[in-house]
Structure formats: structure tokens, C-alpha cells
């Protein structure tokens, strides 16, 4: 079967329930060839292709029949397109010919091989028609206001008929659908057709006596569904037998969808053991806290399905003593799936691009298919767990496509998404081959959170290049965030956008710090002993501390080069300062960082070889993860914390240092990259440009030479921010914002299994 349908007023119209039914029906039947036949230009059709709720067309006939392309590539379908091109005299000739006629207003919409105007009916004169015909073109006037000048003999119907012949499709298996007079040519080809409910009266009159044209009662997609039954396209079973049963709702009011389980899994003696997580940043404990009051919930995360460990267990308890009604709903993945989905594709394609290192990215379509498969599994599990009208909170770029699949499965739920990673500008993000699918998926969310306003605004710019949207709400960024004081500052951000009939909330929610964790570490006797030892070891040496994971985004090499420059320019620092660099290894199997590690080690060796003296090592390099408690001891002793990533979504290490110094009444200075998200909120930090070697060296030297009073003043300002906007504030602010959107949505929502009146 081939369904050739107009868009506006037809395939994109009708009751939401009928649209959903028709779209699911087409998706469930890959043997149905779907053809969009529209008066829109191709540029105006492309945004629809990023909407995951709309079936993707096999072919697109647009520009009222003047353009015909493949649905997947949007490349011209030849020889059909070439034959149409030969008939077109050119836009300039048409404009010059119609210039003497009054009452014509050019339509400022994308259009090719046609010229379109707005006008009244009396503007379309016999003289105009004569002049147009002399150019081997013809006039099409519809809906009392649309005037199209087309190549002679070219219209929706003629191009569709030639497409059917080209594909070798049996004309008896074709159904055409439309609602205005410019669809008439499709019905004149002899195909079975439907004029959907609320069609233009002129179209109904023109097709009134055509036996193969059905006039439906329901508008839009509802009318097409009527025609399916009227003409028996689905056999005797009928439409209802073809529609999949609605998915039953689960029992969880809040579903967390995260790439990590809320506990750690380790294999000991051939058995899978669960133990309490050692979360490095407090995010997992904060998310768990939402279930401490007995709220029914599910935590959806992946786990390796290893047959050697026995049958896979989907549901496990988390901690019944603390979270009575929380279960972990595990998504089974093979080791190969995890290797591709997380360690290779996410880190080799998405991670470099998000951090503006697109030249390092590797894009593979087979890996993208694995990514889609895994994301669908997450969505299916979340859909099974969620209670009716529940909140589903999805985390980070590894799960970008979950909203698309979830919205299809559970249109009732409120979908929230938090983007933990940096979100780049449009010119960077658009490098991704699957940008339309990704943005289309995220636009299925009800609320999307980012760390800082700049990242939210970057998302809006990217989305604007994918689909028409309207910014419906904005808010000022001050005083919560810096505006013009750093590279990632912004004075105003979009807080709500509208895409078609959906409103999506946007928010800046920088993740905060777990202050109690720092306090507990400082109270630990082992930490206090370590602090005393460090104080004795350092004596009069000023300590510059750098802590980051091994990654090209962290600017480690740039920092080492700046340190080398600073020692060269300020020889008085020799034997007086040392750089302690803690570099945390990447996850096992991440081989993409091996070359970077080699370069770092060579640079450290060169600096130490050039400047070292007896009893003094300029750079102390630790390539291992240090326990948090030990790091806190170093935080207390560091005169300067040097955090200068080339790009970073936030950076919690900077906040850990500020908290430690503030709690111990220290006077340490934070030198922070102005390209880290934390730079937009940590007033008091000394901001540096990590791409400028001299600035990097100068700001570090400034921090070392700073007076005690200035250091304490800066620290006090940053410490106030860290204390006020802690991890609990982050979680509660985000969930409160989502609940507000959910409440607004529930005012208009239709209960599952029921139809709107």
C-alpha cells in the first residue's frame, strides 16, 4: 500500500488520539509506503523529519508537485526531478512577468521551481493567465488567497502519478488524502482518495461525484483512518485490531533513568555482589533522598547480562531500611553493548563534540544503531515502571534518545532531562550526523535542565536550526549568574519554548556540593593526621594543586606549559613553589587517552629535568585516583587550586576546594577556567583563559602573589555560593520546577485509555 497525504490540515491534523493511532499504524506496517505531498517547500518539511512522533516518509513531493525527493536523504528522485527542472523557466522570469499586476504579495517561504503569492481572487485575471501560459507555466489559485505559478502540467497529482509508475506500485493500492483545492489534482489521477473532515468546501464540491473519493467525517488523521476501513486496506480485521494495546502503567510516581545503578556491582568468587555506592559527587545520594519518605519509585539503569552469573534479575532492592518503596529496574546489556554504547560511541563520538573537539570525534552508523537499541531498552523499562502521569527524570547525553521512545510509549508521563555535560553552540553541535534525531528527541521533554544559562541558550540555538520554535518565556540571569564577566556568562536566558503545540521548559540548575561529605572528611582523624604531615613536608613551599581526570578537555598539557612559562619568567619561584598534579585514570578500556598520557609524562619529565634542584621537585605527578579524604587533606594545604579545563559543563572539584578552604578558615585562591560552567556562578574565583598560555601563567602567578586580605575576600564570596546552592538545593529546585510543569500539564491531560470529548 502507498499512502500519499497532504500535511497541513490532513496528516498533521485531527484529534491527538487519532494522530497517535494513525502514526502507530504506519510504524507497525513497514510495507506501507508513506509519501508526503504538500505545498510546502522542502525546507519547511525538513523540521518534521526530526519529530520522532511522526512516521518518516519514504518520499516527499513538495512545492505543489515541483520537487520530489527521497525521504531519508532529501536528495532529488531522478529522472523525475530532472524532467520537472527542464520545464521551469526560472524565478526571475516569472517575477518580471507578474510585476505589472497589482495586489500580489510574495510569500516569504521556502520554495523551488514555483513562485507563490498571496492575493485576492479578483487579482487573478485572464490577462495574467495568458502571460503565464506564454511561459509554458500555469496558474493554481486555492483557498481564496494562495496563488502558485507552476511549470505547465506539474502539480501534486501529476508528480504523484509519475512516482507511482516509477516505483511500479499497483494504483489500486494507493490512497490519497487532502483537505484543500490544491489537492484536487491527486484525486483526478483515479486513485482511491479521502477528503478529510473540515475540508475546503470547493474541494468537496469538486469531488462530490467521484465514486472513488470518500468524504470523511473526522478531521485530519481521523479521516484517513476512516478511509482505511472504507476501502478495506487492512482487510477484515479492521483498524482496531491493528492498533497495539496501550501499555499498562506501573506503580512508580518518580522514575530515575540513569546510566549508573544506585549501588555498585562487583563479582566476587563468581557471584554478583551489591554494595553501597561510593559516589564521587553526591548526585546519587541526592536522587535517592527523594524516595526516603516512602515515595514509590524505580531506578532504571543498565547491568551486564552475563550467563555465567546465572539468570538475569530485573528487579533488585536498593535499601529497604531507607527507601522502602524504591526498586532498581535493571536493563540487561551484553558486554559488547556496553563496550559500544558507553565506552566507545558515547566517548568517541559525543564526548569530543560536546566539548568542542569535533576533530577528535569518530562517527559510525553501526555504533549509532547500538546506541538507539540501548536507548529504546531504557525507554521500554521506564515506560513499564512509570505510574499514570508519573515523572520520569532522565540523565545525560548517554540517554539522549530515551525521550523519543518514551513519549511514543507513554504520552501521559512528564519527561524531565538533566544534561550533566557541557552543551555546545550550534556550529559545533551540528557536526553530529544525528543532530536532528537527537534534538527531536529532547524536544519531547517537558523540562530540560542544564548547569548554566549559556548551555540552555546554546540548546535553543541548535533547536532553532532543526525546527521552527518560539521563545515564550525569558528571564534575567543576574544576580544568580555572571553575565559579562566570563566567557560562559549571559545576561538573559530562554526559560520556555514552544514547538508546534508543545511547550518545553528550560532551566539553569548547576549541580551543588555535598557539604556534609567535606565536613565529615575534615573531622576524620586520619585526614587530620595527613594534614599535619603535609604541613611538615611542605614547610615554606607554596603548593599549587591540580586535580582532574585524564582527558583532553581538561587542559592538562596547556597547564603544564603555562607552569613552565611561569617558572621561566619568575626564577624567584624556584624552590619556593611546587605543582602537585593528580590525574585520575580514565575507565578501563578507554584507549583513546594513551597518547595524551604519554605527552603529559614527557612534559612533566622535561620540566623537572630543566628546573629541579636537590630537595625540590617542580612537578609532582600522581597518575591514580586518590581517596576523597586524602584529597581533602591536600585541599586544605593548597595555596592555589588550578582548575583550567578547555571546556567543562561545571567542575565540582573547584567547589570542593572552596568548601574545604571555607570550612577551615583558609586563604587559598582558586584559579578557574572561564570556560568551565562553575565560572558563571563562583564569584571570587580568578578567571583564566586556558587557550592563552600567557594569561594562564599570569593568573597563576597573580594567585600566588595575592595579599591575604584579597584572598580571604575572594574565598568568602565563593564560599557563600557553595554553601547556599548545595547538592540538596540542586535536586529540590529541579524536581520542584518539574512538578510545576507536571501540574500545568495535568490540567489538560486525558486519562490513559480514554478519548477526549
TrEMBL record:
SUPFAM superfamilies: HAD-like, UDP-Glycosyltransferase/glycogen phosphorylase. GO terms for molecular function: alpha,alpha-trehalose-phosphate synthase (UDP-forming) activity; magnesium ion binding; phosphatase activity. It holds the Pfam family Glyco_transf_20. It comes from Marinobacter oulmenensis. Gene3D superfamilies: 3.90.1070.10, Glycogen Phosphorylase B (3.40.50.2000), HAD superfamily/HAD-like (3.40.50.1000). Belongs to the glycosyltransferase 20 family. One of its GO terms (biological process) is glucosylglycerol biosynthetic process. This is Glucosylglycerol-phosphate synthase/sucrose-6F-phosphate phosphohydrolase. Keywords: Hydrolase. InterPro entries: Gluc_glyc_Psyn (IPR012764), Glyco_trans_20 (IPR001830), HAD-like_sf (IPR036412), HAD-SF_hydro_IIB (IPR006379), HAD_sf (IPR023214), SPP-like_dom (IPR006380). Residues 2-232 form the Sucrose phosphatase-like domain.
Amino acid at each position: 500500500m502507498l499512502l500519499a497525504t497532504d500535511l497541513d490540515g490532513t496528516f498533521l491534523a485531527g484529534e491527538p488520539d487519532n494522530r497517535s493511532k494513525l502514526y502507530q499504524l504506519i510504524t507497525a506496517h513497514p510495507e506501507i509506503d508513506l509519501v508526503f505531498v504538500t505545498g510546502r517547500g522542502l525546507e519547511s518539511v525538513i523540521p518534521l523529519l526530526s519529530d520522532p512522533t511522526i512516521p518518516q516518509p519514504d518520499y516527499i513531493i513538495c512545492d505543489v508537485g515541483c520537487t520530489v525527493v527521497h525521504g531519508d536523504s532529501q536528495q532529488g528522485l531522478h529522472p523525475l526531478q530532472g524532467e520537472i527542472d527542464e520545464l521551469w523557466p526560472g524565478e526571475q522570469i516569472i517575477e518580471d512577468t507578474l510585476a505589472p499586476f497589482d495586489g500580489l504579495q510574495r510569500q516569504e517561504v521556502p520554495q523551488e521551481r514555483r513562485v507563490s503569492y498571496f492575493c485576492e481572487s479578483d487579482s487573478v485575471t485572464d490577462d495574467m493567465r495568458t502571460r503565464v501560459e506564454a511561459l509554458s507555466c500555469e496558474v493554481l489559485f486555492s483557498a481564496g488567497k494562495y496563488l502558485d505559478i507552476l511549470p505547465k502540467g506539474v502539480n501534486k497529482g501529476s508528480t504523484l502519478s509519475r512516482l507511482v509508475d516509477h516505483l511500479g506500485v499497483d494504483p489500486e493500492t494507493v490512497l490519497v488524502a487532502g483537505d484543500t483545492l490544491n489537492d484536487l489534482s491527486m484525486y483526478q489521477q483515479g486513485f482511491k482518495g479521502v477528503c478529510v473532515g473540515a475540508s475546503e468546501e470547493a474541494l468537496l464540491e469538486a469531488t462530490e461525484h467521484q465514486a472513488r473519493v470518500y468524504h470523511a467525517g473526522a478531521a485530519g488523521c481521523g479521516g484517513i483512518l476512516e478511509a482505511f476501513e472504507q476501502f478495506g486496506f487492512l482487510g477484515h480485521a479492521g483498524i482496531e485490531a491493528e492498533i497495539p494495546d496501550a501499555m499498562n502503567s506501573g506503580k512508580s510516581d518518580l522514575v530515575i533513568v540513569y546510566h549508573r545503578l544506585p549501588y555498585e556491582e562487583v563479582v566476587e568468587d563468581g557471584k554478583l555482589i551489591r554494595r553501597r555506592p561510593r559516589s564521587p559527587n553526591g548526585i546519587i545520594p541526592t536522587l535517592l533522598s527523594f524516595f526516603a519518605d516512602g515515595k514509590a519509585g524505580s531506578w532504571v539503569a543498565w547491568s551486564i547480562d552475563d550467563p555465567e552469573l546465572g539468570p538475569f534479575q530485573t528487579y533488585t532492592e536498593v535499601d529497604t531500611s531507607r527507601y522502602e518503596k524504591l526498586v532498581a529496574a535493571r536493563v540487561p546489556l551484553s558486554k559488547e553493548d556496553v563496550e559500544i554504547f558507553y565506552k566507545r560511541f558515547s566517548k568517541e563520538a559525543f564526548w569530543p563534540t560536546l566539548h568542542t573537539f569535533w576533530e577528535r570525534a569518530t562517527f559510525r552508523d553501526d555504533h549509532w544503531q547500538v546506541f538507539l537499541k540501548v536507548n529504546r531498552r531504557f525507554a521500554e523499562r521506564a515506560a513499564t515502571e512509570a505510574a499514570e502521569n508519573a515523572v520520569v527524570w532522565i540523565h545525560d547525553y548517554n540517554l539522549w534518545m530515551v525521550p523519543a521512545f518514551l513519549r511514543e510509549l507513554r504520552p501521559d508521563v512528564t519527561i524531565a532531562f538533566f544534561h550533566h555535560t557541557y552543551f555546545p553552540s550550534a556550529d559545533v553541535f551540528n557536526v553530529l550526523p544525528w543532530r536532528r534525531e537527537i534534538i527531536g528527541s529532547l524536544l519531547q521533554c517537558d523540562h530540560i535542565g542544564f548547569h548554566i544559562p549559556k548551555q540552555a541558550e546554546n540548546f535553543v540555538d541548535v533547536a532553532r536550526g532543526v525546527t521552527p520554535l518560539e521563545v515564550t518565556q525569558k528571564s534575567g540571569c543576574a544576580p544568580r549568574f555572571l553575565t559579562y564577566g566570563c566567557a560562559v556568562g549571559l545576561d538573559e536566558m530562554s526559560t520556555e519554548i514552544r514547538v508546534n503545540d508543545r511547550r518545553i521548559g528550560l532551566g539553569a540548575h548547576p549541580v551543588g556540593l555535598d557539604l556534609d561529605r567535606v565536613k565529615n572528611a575534615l573531622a576524620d582523624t586520619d585526614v587530620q593526621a595527613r594534614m599535619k604531615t603535609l604541613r611538615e613536608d611542605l614547610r615554606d613551599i607554596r603548593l599549587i594543586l591540580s586535580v582532574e581526570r585524564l582527558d583532553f578537555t581538561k587542559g592538562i598539557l596547556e597547564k603544564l606549559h603555562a607552569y613552565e612559562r611561569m617558572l621561566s619568567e619568575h626564577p624567584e619561584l624556584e624552590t619556593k613553589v611546587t605543582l602537585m598534579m593528580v590525574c585520575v585514570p580514565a575507565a578501563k578500556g578507554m584507549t583513546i587517552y594513551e597518547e595524551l598520557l604519554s605527552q603529559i609524562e614527557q612534559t612533566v619529565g622535561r620540566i623537572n629535568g630543566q628546573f629541579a634542584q636537590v630537595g625540590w621537585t617542580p612537578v609532582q605527578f600522581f597518575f591514580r585516583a586518590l581517596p576523597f579524604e586524602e584529597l581533602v587533606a591536600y585541599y586544605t594545604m593548597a595555596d592555589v587550586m588550578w582548575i583550567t579545563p578547555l571546556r567543562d559543563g561545571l567542575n565540582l572539584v573547584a567547589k570542593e576546594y572552596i568548601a574545604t578552604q571555607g570550612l577551615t578558615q583558609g586563604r587559598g585562591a582558586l584559579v578557574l577556567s572561564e570556560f568551565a560552567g562553575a565560572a558563571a556562578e563562583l564569584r571570587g574565583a580568578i578567571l583564566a583563559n586556558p587557550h592563552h598560555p600567557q594569561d594562564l601563567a599570569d593568573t597563576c602567578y597573580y594567585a600566588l602573589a595575592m595579599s591575604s586580605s584579597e584572598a580571604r575576600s575572594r574565598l568568602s564570596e565563593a564560599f557563600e555560593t557553595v554553601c547556599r546552592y548545595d547538592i540538596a538545593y540542586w535536586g529540590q529546585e529541579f524536581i520542584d520546577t518539574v512538578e510545576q510543569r507536571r501540574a500545568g500539564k495535568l490540567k489538560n491531560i486525558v486519562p490513559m485509555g480514554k478519548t477526549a470529548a
